[in-house]
Amino acid sequence: MSTQTIAGAEVELNDEGFFVHPEQWNEAVGAVIAREAGIDPMTDRHWQVVRYMRSQYLETGSAPSIRTLGKASGVPVKELYQLFPKGPAKLAAKIAGIPKPRGCI
């Protein structure tokens, strides 16, 4: 684990770059993480997915799978892959400041 400063906020990340403490996240931090992952700018559709991921994690304690994400977020799976080409569930979770979803390698 390491502590980094992202968008002026001190955050603790695990070895894969996922947040250890999701409460350290804010949208400015998410935007920087997205930019570093090659997503710039973050569109309303990106934020829709990221906010859905966060809300589901905070409600249930786990991130939704790609199938659930495609059905419940309002963004179809095909579009998820266009928005987050390096793996939608994993990358959206990283941008959202939540742990890596189960089932993601």
Summarize the structure in words:
With 105 residues, this protein is mostly helical. It is 48% helix and 10% strand. The chain has five helices and two strands. Helix 1 crosses helix 5 and helix 2 packs across helix 5.
Largest sheet: 2 strands, antiparallel
- The CATH level-2 architecture is identified as Orthogonal Bundle
Task: Describe the strand arrangement of the main beta sheet, using strand numbers.
Answer: 1-2
**Binned strand content:** 5-15%
Shape: globular
Q: If you average the pLDDT, what whole number results?
A: 95
The radius of gyration is 13 Å
CATH superfamily: DsrC protein, C-terminal domain
Structural class: mainly alpha
Q: How many strands in all?
A: 2
Distance between the termini: 18 Å
**Elements, N to C (H/E):** EEHHHHH
Helical fraction equals 40-55%
Task: Count the DSSP helices.
Answer: 5
Q: Under CATH, the topology is which?
A: Arc Repressor Mutant, subunit A
Poorly predicted segments: none
The CATH class label is Mainly Alpha
Structurally, how many domains make up the residues? Answer: 1
Instruction: Give the oligomer, counting copies of the same chain as homo and different chains as hetero.
Output: single chain
Helix-strand layout with pairing:
Elements: E1 2-6, E2 9-13, H1 27-36, H2 44-60, H3 66-72, H4 77-83, H5 88-96
Antiparallel strand pairs: 1-2
Helix pairs in contact: 1-5, 2-5
Give a short summary of the structure.
By secondary structure, the protein is mainly alpha-helical.
Characteristics of this structure?
105 residues; mainly alpha; Arc Repressor Mutant, subunit A; two-stranded antiparallel sheet; 2 strands; 48% helix
